[in-house]
Amino acid sequence: MSELRFLVIGCGSIGKRHIRNLLALGHTAVTAFDTAPDRRAEAEALGVATATDLDAHFRAASGDHTYAALVTTPTRLHVPVALRAAEAGHHLFIEKPVCDVGGPELARLEARVAERDLVSLVGCNLRFHPGLCTAKALLSERAIGRVASIRAEFGQYLPDWHPWEDYRKGYSARKDLGGGVVLDAIHELDYVRWLMGDVTEVAALAGHQSHIEIDTEDTASILMRFASGAFGEVHLDYVQRTYTRSCHIIGDEGTIAWDFGAKGDVRVFTAATKAWETRPGPAGWEANTMYVDELRHFVACLRREATPEQDVAEARRVLDVALAVKRSADERVFVSL
User: In terms of domains, do 244 and 136 share one?
Assistant: First the structure.
């Protein structure tokens, strides 16, 4: 493939992270777009060109398959923007979740990606966390026997996420932009499904439980059943004043424990040893490494050297779980998938 060119659409915190990481990986043909002049200026300060007219870019670059668009806009805009990029023949990296409602537009995007043989990757960076990769390998080895259940948790006080800006104006706080903790923290729904297999049934409680000034749910407690018969429990919130992200996987021969705060380490207890053993992560690992590895994977996919870890079709299946959670909470019913 000729030199890859990247268009980053949306220059908020995650868009700027991807710009920095693309440059660090040696990709200098990067253009950034944002409707806000101050964010375009921030992107220019990183050393990339900026575009002020997205339609003009797509007309000029139509059919140029060396282009990949990174869609890092608010969730509600993911599919409309990605469709425009796909129509121009751009490969796609879309931040999670793929969208907030599903429906015909998402089906159209899936069809365009398939028809035009485009690479698509939906960014769920926790799939590139060394601790969770170790957990997946241990499950493949049946290190803890038959798995009975998984328990996952994420929590962080929303106003602390981006202290430099008013959290009430961010997409996380706004239903009209696709916010709310169920979609925002879809990482947990994604990785438990990645580790455990397809989800067949969910039941959930979700709501606005705190003083935080948002019009979306800030807390969710989710039960699920997997195709294997195993159970899952997932807790998500915008309320905890300390960052929490962890999971426990319980089998009939042992337990796997992962905590984001332990860097890449994973702890394993087995009935055979009757003791905890630590599987250490890579030396010097830091959180940004996940995002770098995610982009390396995307580039390998663009060069047809790898298969996307989560393409648009796979991301839709994860979205189906999230939407089932929201429906269960709204209607107070079990939802089958």
Answer: yes
Residue 84 is part of which domain span? 5-118
- Pull the structure tokens for residue 109: 């995007």
Residues 94, 137 within the same domain: no
State residue 171's pLDDT score. 86
d(CA 244, CA 156): 6
Helix, strand, or coil (residue 281): coil
The SS3 of residue 271 is: coil
Q: What is the pLDDT of residue 80?
A: 96
Which residue matches tokens 């991301």? 315
Instruction: With cut-offs at 50, 70 and 90, classify the pLDDT of residue 1.
Output: low
Closest-CA residue to 100 (of 12, 176, 169): 176
Domain end among 87, 118, 149: 118
Q: Which of 118, 152, 186 finishes a domain?
A: 118
The answer to whether residue 309 is domain-embedded is: no
Residue 334: Cβ within 10 Å count: 13
Q: Tokens representing 335? A: 């939802």
Structure confidence at residue 262 (pLDDT): 87
Could you tell me if 98 and 240 lie in one domain? no
pLDDT at 64 over 80: no
**36 and 113 together in one domain:** yes
- What total number of domains does the chain contain? 2
Beta strands in the chain (DSSP E): 5-9, 30-33, 49-51, 67-71, 91-95, 120-123, 147-155, 199-207, 219-226, 231-237, 244-251, 254-259, 266-270, 275-279, 335-336
Tens of pLDDT, residues 199-210: 999 999 999 999
106 and 184 part of one domain? no
pTM comes to: 0.95
Concatenated DSSP letters of 90-112: -EEEEESSS-SS-SHHHHHHHHH
pLDDT, mean over the chain: 96
